[in-house]
Every structure is written in C-alpha cells, then in structure tokens.
Write a structure and sequence with these properties.
The structure is a single chain. The chain is mainly alpha-helical. Helix content is 55%, strand content 7%. The chain has one domain. The protein has a two-stranded antiparallel ribbon with strand order 1-2.
Length: 166
Amino acid sequence: MNETKRIPLPPKFGGVKDGSVVWTRVADVDHEPLGYFLTCHLLIEHYMDEYLQATIPQLHWEKARLTFGQRVNLLKWEVLVSDQKFDPIPAIKHMNTLRNKISHRLEIKLDMEELQPLAEYLRKLRSPSSYAAPTDPKELLNTFMGTCCATFASHLSFQYRRKPNS
C-alpha cells in the first residue's frame, strides 16, 4: 500500500485571547485532491487557450493578458456544442470559482457538494435516468476534465484541418 505521509503545516496566528497569542493548526486538509483539482483546471485552461487562439487569431494574445474569466467569456457555446443544454461554460466558470476559493483559503475541502455543477453537466450529456455521475471527487474531476478537453480537442482538430498550412 502506498500511503502518503502528511507533512504538517506551521500553525497560523489565531489572534490574541486573554492576553495570550493563540496558534491554530491547519489540520485535516487533504492536499492531494486539491492538487489534482488545480491540475485539471490548468489542463482545461490550456485547451481553452489553444481553442481561443485558433478561433480568434487576430487578437494579440501576448499583449492582451486576459484573465481566465475574460477568456471564458470569449467562448461561444453555440460553436462548442450544438445544443445549449450541453454547454460546458457554466461548469468551467464554477470550476474557476472553486479554484479562486482554494487559492485564498487555507482550510478547504473539495467534496461532491462543491463539484455538483460539474456532475450536473455530465448528467446532461447522457440520459439522466441511466447515468450516475462518479461519486468520488477525483473521478468526477477526471471525467469532467476529459470531456471538456475532448470537446476543445475536437474543435482544434477541425479548425486546423480547415487550415492545412497552420
């Protein structure tokens, strides 16, 4: 069995109570799913950027330095998918909101409740009565990331097939 040893973090300043400094431990945070989540976010961002650069080549991407939210707003669901109910953009936006929470909170747990918009998106893609989204956060992230990346990859393949000299 390959168990990961948790390395304790230093305590955080918890204020002053009755004239004494209070130190609190950051405990019970499993960093592995958070790291996996961030990696999934980065990979989706990579595919999204490649897609946007292929579909909007006239924009000076290096100079524009757009935020993630601005880049998501450039996506058009009607180009990505044929039916709005299959639109991944709200779930991608939710994933970015979670990424921001993770970046600014020391004690956060990534659970299925936090990932519900991703599960709902996956349910919409399949027959809701016959599909059960993964119940493990890491499996759900993997399925969502794979689905999003495949969507962008298919459009990239099509885009570059139309431009043989690219």
